[in-house]
Amino acid sequence: VIVPEKFDITNCDREPIHIPGLTQPHGVLIVLQEPELTILQASENTKVFFSVYPEFFIGKHLSHLISPEQVSIIQDALMQENQVFIQLLKINQNLLTGNEVAHQLKSEFFLGMLHRSGDVLILELEAQESRKTSDYLENYQFLEQAIANIRNSTSMAELYRNITHELKQITQFDRVVIYKFEADNSGVIIAEDKESHLDSYLGLHYPASDIPVQARRLYYQKWLRLIPDINYQPVRLIPTNNPLTDTPLDLSEAVLRSVSPLHIEYLQNMGVTATVCVSLINEKRLWGLIACHHYTPKNVNYEVRKICELIGKFASIELLNRQERSLHSYRQQVKLIQEQLRQALSDESDYIGNVFKRNEASLLELVQAQGAAILLEGQLTLLGSTPTPTQTQAIVNWLMSQNAQEIIYTDSLPQLYAKAKNFKDKACGILAISIVLNHRSYHIIWFRPEQIHTVNWAGNPNKPVSVDSDNSLLLSPRKSFELWKETVKDKSLPWQHFEIEVAQEMKNNLMLAALEFSHAALKQAA
Ligand code: BLA
């Protein structure tokens, strides 16, 4: 007997969330074998929706459940694409005569959604109030306006705000946030639209473990997830495994996939009752999520979900475009600054340290540093937020003892050089270029503070939930925040690849400065 693995806070990245063997109860899931359309499995709640137990029709043809006309609609749909929207499936009333009658049906009309999973076909049915479909034109107009608003945003901040605003408008949820993944897969809330009585989450950070790796992988594949009521009773699949292969059913693409209980507990601790989450995908990576929260049960229908998904897809493209544009303009800006510095250095007759001092903002901006030190033959110039001169000199000595490579950078100086713990609020990350010319050394060192000191506490991380007993809150934003603080301890924001390239280029300028400097010194000596 294989004892199933229990998943908790220590091993949640191993939970196979794509094969829970369970569904959410707000619809019916039916597994079909192609091409005959024999029913292989079904969610147990067919009893609730159709007044029949799955055992009654498993192994039989789909036409035992729905009318032959509807079966042929499905067959036609299968000729076209994997994911097809089928309207208004009507349950075959013949099935019910004799035992329970038609008025026992939870609904007469269903929306059918089809997709393939491995070798089987999954048909998901959602009860509809009527035969009426939604107003196409109204949806189209909303979408057109939403896309225009997103597109016309004049800054990144406005773009993020507009995305949350549009999702809030269409879902009517209490809170919508954008959760952006950092390079280390931790996350930060960078935009929010919410009901005014709610506390803000803006600026809050969470560790990578809050959205484990297999979940991130799944969300890269599937654009939207939905939990209309987190206090749901999961529904079993009958039978649990595909009877032909005895393998679990992959529900990655299923709307009704039952969600990890660990995530449910987290949402409970946050006080959230319903969620919709849309992925933001940046070329080859899950860039972020648009997370919508509601504090009472709330479902969103197929059309709204499709609109959310489309906004997510459009926003993803827009984000990518703008990122490329801003990288491009950063590169232009860097070129300009480099040129200015070069000019200034070659024109100046006075001490070069002063040149850098006059151009302090430019020098720091080059690599997004908070401070810098320039050391030319023992003369030290400090710019912005830096350690003391003595501490800086000690860093330089340490750098020189490192067999002075061309360029040294780290986002955790305290790990390499223990004394840095004392000034990590100024210099936790360093990026250093050094030149040794005629036995003299020249250095530029950029500093970044420990990350925790750069966080802008717009929200209150100590109070996102009102419950106070700590044990029950192992899975909660507060614990997460503590964990995140641990993971970024002794760390600055990492140096980006292109920033290191910029430093490399700056080395040429430093070389120029060093040459000038030694010429001037020679002249003075003569
Ligand atoms: C999933 N966790 C998620 C998701 C979010 C968060 C947004 C994705 C849900 C979706 O797309 O449908 C986390 N939600 C947050 C955070 C905020 C928020 C940080 O609103 C802040 C405002 N979660 C944990 C821990 C574990 C964990 C410690 O915090 C594991 C021990 C697990 N989270 C976990 C799992 C999933 C998840 C397994 C996947 C749920 C699923 O799709 O089945």
Automatic annotation (TrEMBL):
Record key words, sorted: Chromophore, Coiled coil, Kinase, Phosphoprotein, Photoreceptor protein, Receptor, Sensory transduction, Transferase, Two-component regulatory system
Known catalytic reactions: ATP + protein L-histidine = ADP + protein N-phospho-L-histidine
Keyword Aminoacyl-tRNA synthetase: no
Enzyme Commission number(s) from the entry: 2.7.13.3
Broad EC category: transferase
Claim: Transferase is one of the keywords in the record: yes
Organism domain of life: Bacteria
Designated name of the protein: histidine kinase
